[in-house]
Amino acid sequence: MLIFKALACDYDGTLASEDRLGPDALAALGKAREAGLRLILVTGRTFFELTRVCERLDLFDGVVAENGGVLYFPATAVIRALAPPPPPRFLAELDRRGVSYQLGRVIVGTARSAEAAVRAALGEAGVHFEFVQNRAALMVVPAGISKGSGVRQMLRLLGLSFHDVLALGDAENDLDLFDACGWAGCPASAVPELMRRADWSFPGEDGAAIARAIVGPILNGLLPLDRSTRHRIDLGWAAATGETVNIPSRGINVLVHGDPSSGKSWLAGSLVERLRERRYAVCVIDPEGDYGELAGLPGVGRAEGHDEAAVDAAFRHFERNPAACVVIDLAPLAHARKVKMIERCLLAARGMRQQIGLPHWIVLDEAHYSLHRDGVAERALAIENKGFCLVTYKPSWIRPSAMRAIDVLIGGRTAAAHELAFLRSFLTAAGGCSEGVIPALADLPQGEFLLMKKETGSTWLASTFTATPRAIPHVRHLRKYADAAVRPEHAFLFRLPDGRLVATADSLNGFRRIVATAADAVVAHHAGRGDFSRWIHDVFSDRELAGQLRKVERRWGRGEIPDLRQVIDEAIAVRYWSEES
């Protein structure tokens, strides 16, 4: 899937060579349309002059002419001026001074050498227009009119997010065009100031260079999106140096992992806040109601995904607003129903991305719920299209196809030995990492994280950072883990001392119920072996509760605890249901 949904192209010196669209440029524009890209022509020429030199305006979805002063829609032949025409007294002064000019619907075009005479005419007429330079040409435009203002209006009318638009230009007046679009490229013949502002430059000159770029790296998805220094999202500050730590804002997949209470959901919420500030469209799939507080931010909507119709209605926000941020809350649903609705969300996101390129990011919390081997259908995920942030305390449960698509890992404290072993194995298979990275995860303090990313052709690089403050306080709901169903091989098997199986618990709540009702011999058998604390530690990675139960088991063994069942139940209740959680 192309990350760009539209090209906004300058005419002279970019698409056109010597006033005309050559055969290579025409062919490239045709291929871009076949690939589903919207095409916007942006020019400083007067509308009348443009119709004289460009015979294929029908190739474009929209035309921004007269340096942003005029919009034209070829399919409907609708033309719209965004400012009044030049005052007659100003034109009379130009005539009196013998200045040769082209009159547009909104602007006046002349030679750059006539600037002094034009200034004098404006002063005499009492007209407050602005000058825009375009190589050897000079445009006199109403205040507030620019290529950027015209393109922004065009994008609103076409329902496009500026993040999905690649601007192509070559001259000074294209700086405003670049500012109005998410990405920018230019031919090698562009003016130096534009070259410095562009994300990419393409070899060659004029229309031929841009034509090769369109049919080559642009349509084939070969532009290095993650190398643009302008498109980064700040995460925090490096622990060692204090430098800003950031990641690319597009073209990557992120896995955020860590033990319960490590701050992983807090960090994921912080990422959503940063994306919202930058006007990216974000969908948060929230199985346990951890992100509802984001709805307190302007522009963030919350929807309960109780059925398919509710999910579909939530995604329609992106049709109305290219910068929408929507949290889909699935907390009230039973586990099996949650997985089904997560699949519905992912399918809806995949379809909408194919149609309009939105949402830019999909944040899936508790990803182990749905991305284990028996979770959602593979076709629903489409993780190869990038823009996913998976959040989990069980990365080992994530299916291999999803893990292989991860570009950046952000780890909070991770103490579970099997999770550390999995991460070591994953990083080794994916290129390797320095020896101290995995052990460092087990000792991370609250609020610190380890960023791991792979540079092209190298091993995974790691750095520790402190996260930026949140705009909205994050409220954790530890009780959500009590209902989370574990995979069958991780269930607790209650047995009699002779090994006979009497019950199976696949969640913490189920465990509590069985402990409360199981025969004394069963409870004593497991407590004496330390099975309860070991299961909590190994399966839920909850060191705090595991430590408490370990003390309980030892004290019970010494005869200090008369009612083992009650103490176990209270320890779990305090940890997962107290007001502080």
Shape, per Cα inertia axes? elongated
Distance between the termini: 42 Å
Please report which band the strand proportion falls in: under 5%, 5-15%, 15-25%, 25-35%, 35-45% or over 45%.
15-25%
Poorly predicted sequence stretches spanning 5 or more consecutive residues: none
Q: Name the CATH superfamily assignment of the largest domain.
A: P-loop containing nucleotide triphosphate hydrolases
Structural class of the helices, strands and pairings?
A: alpha/beta
In CATH, what is the class of the largest domain? Alpha Beta
The domain count comes to 4
How much helical structure, as a percent, in the residues? 25-40%
Sheet of most strands:
11 strands, mixed
By CATH, the architecture of the largest domain is named 3-Layer(aba) Sandwich
Overall mean pLDDT: 91
- Tell me how many strands there are: 27
**CATH topology heading of the largest domain:** Rossmann fold
Sequence of strands across the biggest β-sheet? 16-15-25-24-23-17-22-21-18-20-19
Radius of gyration: 30 Å
List the total number of helices. 22
Question: Can you describe this structure?
Answer:
By secondary structure, the chain is an alpha/beta fold. It folds into 4 domains: 1-80 and 145-223, 3-Layer(aba) Sandwich (Rossmann fold); 83-144, Alpha-Beta Complex (Hypothetical Protein Ta0175, Chain: A, domain 2), CATH 3.90.1070; 232-477, Rossmann fold; 481-577, no CATH class. Helices cover 37% and strands 21% of the residues. The protein is built from 22 helices and 27 strands. An 11-stranded mixed beta sheet has the order 16-15-25-24-23-17-22-21-18-20-19. Strands 7-6-5-4-1-12-13-14 form an 8-stranded mixed beta sheet, with helices on both faces. Strands 8-9-11-10 form a 4-stranded antiparallel beta sheet, covered by helices on one side. Helix 3 (88-96) crosses helix 4 and helix 20 (531-540) runs antiparallel to helix 21. The longest helix is centred in the middle third of the chain and has 22 residues, at 335-356. It is elongated, with a radius of gyration of 30 Å. The model has no long low-confidence stretch (mean pLDDT 91).
